[in-house]
Amino acid sequence: MSTKKFYELHYLNDELARKTGFNPYYVNVQSGLNDSLIIDGKEFINLASNNYLGIANDERIKEATINAINKYGLSLCATPIALGGTDLYKNLTQKLSNFVGLKSSIIYPSCYQANNGLFPAIADKNDVIIIDQFSHSSLVEGARTVGCKIRPFLHNNIDSLEKNLKNSLNYKQIFVASESVFSTEGSIAPFAEIVELCKKYGAIPVIDDSHGIGVIGKNGKGILEHAEIKDYQGIYTASLGKSIANLGGMISGKKSLIDYLKYYSPHLIYSTSITPPILAGIEKAICIIEEEFEALGNKMWKYRNKLRDALIKFGYDVRSSSAPITSIVTGTSVDTLLFAKELYKRKILATPFIYPSVPENQGVIRLIAGANLEEKTIDRAIQIFKEIKES
Amino acid sequence: MENTDYKYKINPNTNLFTELNIDSFGKLMIVNAIEDEFSIEVDEDDIEKFATVNEIIDVLQSKYI
In this complex, how many residue pairs, one in chain A and one in chain B, have their CB atoms less than 8 Å apart? Predict the structure, then answer.
């Protein structure tokens, strides 16, 4: 193939952006996550970040990060298996394990990488991965890499899962994968039931708790606390870049498995280790959540309920949600971007989900009101949604 | 109670993907259900040929059932 032909094949089709006169992606943010967000020099209400507990710009986390830079510098310029692992790394993996109630953990540069790297390290072509149909791309693509049988089950549908389990008994290993909190709509997996079914059929549960850690559970410890699961025998993954307000992704579980992954997960051992300042930031974030979850969580839920109740009252089609995520159904990709454009014009930044992130014509605008926002900001956002509905 | 409030009508020539917007996972669920029902394993190449109900029937009858 000629170079010309190659570049003709790979280009961005911006028809949708041209049709709507708006591209909501890769916005030019010029501030941290304070009450207001500065984009292109203008103040916005930020309902787009996953900063659930509002600690991304916390002074204590910044201080811990700066202290780590002063001690270790910016990077150890090595993979964790070489000299990329510091005492910070060792202490943090133990702290994270204790936080979620598991024995051992490792930290990848991102949760996408953790999820992507997990299945290739533990599964092969003789296995089956049964996976919730709405699972995150990182889990799906990781499963596809293995080349084994993949069985999607209907979203959060225990009967569909059991039917798939019953028809999977001839495979060597059976994995059941799901997200805990599904981030486009805020539904929560019936994980206690999933774990029970896994026990019944000899399957290994894999849960991605990226939108659950620091968010759900009485003390914000995520899905295992939320579902009251003791002595979890499966695999747990989570992003450290959402409520934990940093970067990276963890895999936790039994010590023997984590020890194995430390040496057999290429996504971990060939990636430059997550850097000391980030490790210190994560450690401080966990400390803050352990001490202050009640107050931060109450604020997060208060804002979520206030916003959600108002939107429903104004007549918006709001998705059913059990998490502090509020998604407005907007339909086609064009309608979704046009609604996001209207919000943007009125200085609200929200997250539009369009095909292929969601099924065709099932676009939504997702709103997450972080605990860093002031209540008057939520009131202002509500007023703007009211004005749009009345216009 | 069975839900009969279907949004779409399917006939033998309905394209499952362009008309019903069934995605790759939806396709896999259909294939898995067929495999379970008839105790067969459909080749990946044949799965690629599935677009309408008629095409699924043709492939199954010619090769698997």
Answer: 26
